Amino acid sequence: MALLPRLRQLMRRPSSASKVGARRPTKASRRGDTLHEDALRSMLSDDPNNERAFLALAEIVRRRAAESVPEEDPLSAPNVEHERQHAADLAVWSLGEELAGNPRAWYPLIEVARLSVRDDHEGTIRRLTTAAERDPSGQALVQGLALLCQAGQPVDALNLGVGHWRPREHVPEVARELVRAAIAAERPLEAKQHLSSLDLYPDQRAIAALRDELTIEVAQAQQTTPGT
Prior knowledge:
Residues 13-34 are annotated as: Disordered. This protein has eleven helices and no strands. The chain has helices at residues 3-11, 31-46, 51-67, 77-99, 107-116, 121-134, 139-150, 154-164, 173-184, 188-196, 208-224. α2 packs antiparallel against α3 (51-67) and α4 runs antiparallel to α5 (107-116). Helix content is 66%, strand content 0%.
């Protein structure tokens, strides 16, 4: 069962799916995990975009959720493993949604989008759009573009980037992702336009190597794409 339908199914149960990733005492709970979780939650309260803290906390709730799936007949082991993976993903989803309630949070939205990218296209784009709007540095946009391209959706990446990229203000890595998305979408002329937008970046020395790298990639794309 896909992740999103599974999430909806669990949300209709009397016990809400939003509690999957919540810290609660269990027979399998570990005091070290509890102390570590409290510290990580405190860090994320101060900075909801602390990637290392999020991933560390996600690992704790992921493991706890997987351990909560009961052992069954050995013959059904593959199904048990599948359920554990679902439970772990739902725990991270729940954690991401919880932290995304902070209006400064963009990284948790990226992680929830990563889980939803195969099942919920509209929701994924909405999350990535919100993340990009919340982050003035452009890092959220970089990660959102890369996520969509990795999922085989370069046109959606281009739409997201064109609507949110600010070449003067954002980190120049946005240009790399946009150029590569355009190349993946077989739009080398559009890739060339995005490359040209780097002219607006205030520190041209800092992006010299990036410009050279992308110039080569665009030239190669133009040579291999018919009609360009």
